[in-house]
Input
Amino acid sequence: MASFVYFIIDSLLGLLILAIIVSAILSWLVAFNVINLRNQFVYGLVRFLEAVTRPVLAPFQKVIPPLGGVDISPIIAILVLQGIKIYLLPMVFRPLQGLLG
Output
């Protein structure tokens, strides 16, 4: 049971990292007028990704100011999430797997 919960949390963290990357790329494409927010699909996708990533990125954006107009908070958030995924998550679930078998 613990390995299933570990798999779910690990997968959700991976999807969150992917959502942050896609959101950053889409924001650059919109800023450089490569894609247009008047397209209904693009608008819906950007809104969805902002709703998913904003709670994660907001604390980093409060602490880290934009450098030269470039927001580096997605990079820091990805590094922190990768650290949680690679180091913290196995450390938490290893004792649980020993207890539950």
Remarks:
- The chain is about 80% helix and 0% strand.
